[in-house]
Every structure is written in structure tokens, then in C-alpha cells.
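Complex record, two chains
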Amino acid sequence: MRSVPRQVRVVEVGPRDGLQNEPAVLPLDQKVEFVRRLAACGLPQIEAGAFVREDRVPQMAGTDALFRRLAAAIGGGRGQAADAGAPVLSALVPNRHGMERALAAGAGEVAVFTAASDAFARHNINMTVVESLVRFRDVLAMAAEHGLRVRAYVSTAWWCPYTGRVAPDAVRRVAAALTEMGCYEIALSDTTGAATPAEVADLVERVAGDISVSRVAVHLHDTRGTALANVLAALEAGVATVDAAAGGLGGCPYAPGASGNLATEDLLYMLHGMGVKTGVDLDALAAASCWLAGAIGRTLPGRYLSAGPVVPAEAGQSTDAKV
Amino acid sequence: MRSVPRQVRVVEVGPRDGLQNEPAVLPLDQKVEFVRRLAACGLPQIEAGAFVREDRVPQMAGTDALFRRLAAAIGGGRGQAADAGAPVLSALVPNRHGMERALAAGAGEVAVFTAASDAFARHNINMTVVESLVRFRDVLAMAAEHGLRVRAYVSTAWWCPYTGRVAPDAVRRVAAALTEMGCYEIALSDTTGAATPAEVADLVERVAGDISVSRVAVHLHDTRGTALANVLAALEAGVATVDAAAGGLGGCPYAPGASGNLATEDLLYMLHGMGVKTGVDLDALAAASCWLAGAIGRTLPGRYLSAGPVVPAEAGQSTDAKV
């Protein structure tokens, strides 16, 4: 193994990428409670909602009220990021109108969303990748004016569900363009959970060569069980920001075969086991996921959530074999 | 990422470690059919059964007849290993009596089973680790006399479910003793799926320093989602033999909280994605697991098995973003 960063920033995307892709629509009170519980775990950043059309994405309805209530309940909104212990509360914004809503609701940070494959972008956001970048100009100008940082997701960074393998150079160009436009971080996203570790290491190294690895995050789905191995490959390439969703919530309705996000508990279990600091309380996070599973009425797919901690029944009495 | 071996030998343990730990007891005809289907996938080695007490482990009843029927159906038994395309069919043997049965039934290879923690050994095989090694002397002498190779499992190589962390030096001593006694390969086993990648890399490097990495295999459970990341760490440390169970069958009834083995499909998906050759047909293996899931009447936990292959709907028409 190559060495890995000593500290990793975990971006919790359960309330947005997770809930957005669950069939159940969580009532506002329960969303507030979910994010409040997540915030109490020590997460540095939570993507809490999306300022998208409520008629098209009912799961994200009420994001405006959600941010206002969260600002009062836990801080983390605009101008509040420096509060002791409060996570940054970020929101997905697709366009100028979404950005206006995010500003009015006091979001602490925003994220834009595009892809490296035109076929996926057309299916998902009904425009080409270049058209999406043009649309982001307004969003980035408004964010700069109000001192808000902008994160960018590049979906289908390795594989497109419609056309297969995506060329690393296409991803590099999109990542470089977004960075040049002012995005502070590029989340390379394995939308359908199809990537494997060598591909992840290769792409991270290429993209980092253009924009610096400190600006690269990975957003991985565990569809085929490779998410944590891909995280390991990314860490070895120097990545120190990893997205995950509590309990492995969500998936992607536009991507055939896609299942849940990497479960935050599984990520924390691996990182903490490797001595990598996150500042997040794993047990508290698992409790928040259990609460959420009850609220949406389904068992979540995260492995750690089913297995629980390693609790030795006779702990403290070493019985290492005397050979 | 560090470089990894170009070829990996996958040892399929579903019919033994998998079925032994399923509540359902598979009838003999279905066991024969399961192993026959697995053998047709190109697996180099299949652990097909265990010569243990049938009153204690009813899931392994009929292993004698199973091996006789498999020798006729697919080869792979003693003296048949050189048959073109036939996998080595191995069996677990706990003692002299088991070894006699394995010889009579024509097993192609045998495996012995101990631990690095006395607490686990006492709970699981009712003796200390040293006592187990003493008992293996007869087994190894008989194997040598008949020209059979002997593999050894070292359970709780990282964590013991009763006493917690196991000292790497204890594992080294057990691995060295087993090698000195004549075992050709040591399968370091994460019985409860508690290990994380840095621990795996560290232990493999220490054990390999004593006995050579070509003699080290890893046997990992996916209890907390870390199995494939642990495989990656092992590959980077030079390991080229990995155990897995079709569909993620089984667990370990003696280890609280333990769930299924690493699913062979997930392992193959990752390895093939990295360009590592295995000689195994992933789609055929997934079909064998689906058949077995029907036979035992439960959904298997492997991720790939649920998600399926990456099948682009518009494959061949690259639509990489024109940025």
C-alpha cells in the first residue's frame, strides 16, 4: 500500500443524493431531524437538499424551509460556517433560479452538477455538458458575489450507463473547465458504481495533474461492491475528500442498475481502522441511519449498519496463540 | 496504487465455507450440480466439502459421496488434477479420520483449519492452537505419503470475536509453524470481517517475510464492506491467491456478527476491471449463484449479483463531453 492522507474530510450526501433517490418522500420535520442528528456526529459538511423543481423531484420539496430551519437549529448556513462544531450545510443548485433560492434560504455552500458523457447529461439534465457549463456561469458569478464556495459533481467519470467507458481526457477537460470557472472542488462521480481501483487511481492522477489533488473529491456508489476499494485507490493517489451517504441511502433513478451510495458507516469503519482521522463519531452516525431507516420504512444496504461494531465478548484478555 | 499481480488464483469456497454456514442443508444431488456448475466457470480450485462429523455439521453430510460423484462427473480428484480444465477439488479435514475419508473419496487436495487466537480455537474446534497443530501432524504425514498438497487456514488473523485485536506476531508464528510442518499455503482469514486495509497490508508483509508471499492467500469476509479494499491491499503486497464464495454465501456460526464471505462475483468484477486475469467466466459464475440462490431459497448478499453487468444501452456510440 502507498501512504494515505492522515485526515479525510467526509462529505455526507445522504439528505440530498440519498433521499433524492429514495421512493419515500420524507416530511420536512423528519428531514430537519435527520440533518440535526447527522450534524451532531461531527461531520464537517452535509449536503442537505437541492433547489430543484419540486414538481419534478418531490423528494427535494421544501428545501427552502429546510435550510431556514436548519440555520436556526444547528447553524452551518451562510456566514455561520465558522460556528464551533457546526457543519457546512450545502445544497445542489441546477441554475440561476436555484441559486437565488439557495441565497434566500441561507445555504452555506452550493454544488453544481454535470457529467463527462453527453448521453448521460441529456438523459439526466436535458442538455449537453457544454450547455450545462454555460448555464453555470450565472451561478458562479452570483456565488462569487455573495462569497459562497461552489463544488462541482462530474457524473459518469468512469462509465456511462448509456454508452459505456468514458475517456479520461473528457473528464479532465470538464474538471479543468469547472475549476477555471471558479469551482473549488471537483467530485469525480461513479454514478453507476462501475469503476474499479486501477481506473480510479489513473483518473485521479490525470485530473490532479491539471488542477491539484487537493481539489479532487470522489463520489462513489457501491453497486458492485467496489466502492471502498476505489476509495483506497483514491486515497493512495492523494485524495482527502470522500462523499458518502448515511446507511448507503439512495442510488440514481436515471442510471439503469445503479444502487446505493457508499455507506458513510462503511467508509468511517475503514478509515478509522486505518488510523485516518475524520472527526466523525461512527456509532452516532449508525444510530442516525437506524433512525432514518425507521422513518423511510426500509432496511438500508450499508454493511456496517447490519453487522455493527467489533465487540469482543471477552475483550482485554488476550489469548493470542502460544506457538 | 502499487502494482498488483497480473494473474490471481481464485479459490472458490462456496460449497464448503459457504454452504457449511447456511441454515439450509442442500441435498447431495444439488451439491453435485452446484459444484459442476462452478467447475464449468473455469475456477482453478473449488473447496467442495468437509470431512467432519455429520451429526455436528449436517450441512457437510455426504461429502464422501459428493467427492466420488464429482470425480466421475468433472475430474479434479486425486491423480486427476492434470486433466485439462478440471479444477482442483479440495476438502477440509479436521483430523486423521477426516484425512482417511478424504483419501478414500479421492479428494484432490486437503485443507486444515486453526486460528491465531486460543479463545476462538477453543470455541470453534475445542482445543488450543498448539493442540490443533499437534493433531495436524498425522494429517500432514498421511498427505505426504499420498502426494496430496495441504492448505492451512489461520482464522482470526486480525481480530478475534472474543478477545479483540490479535497480535501480528502470533499469526506469524502460527503461519511459520504450519509451513514448517509442510502446508504449501497459508490462508490468512478475517473470520469476522473486521480487518481494514492497512492491517491487511501489514500482516501480509510480516508473514511473507517469513514464508514468502507466494505461500500467502487471503480469505476475507465482507461483514463491514471492507473485503474488496482488503483484497486490494493484499494484492499490492504481492498476494496472488484469494478465496471467495459464490454470491457471498455463508458466514461463520461461531463468530458473533459474522456475515457472508466475499462474493466471488464482486472479486472477479474488480479483478477483471483492473486487467487482472483469473481464467474465470464472471457471467457463468453469477448464473451458478442464481441457481444456488433458488436451491437454498434465499437472496444472496453479493453486490454484483444484484446489480449485474455494466450494459450500455447505446454502447459503441461514444458521447464523451465535447468541452
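Note: Chain A has one domain: 9-307.
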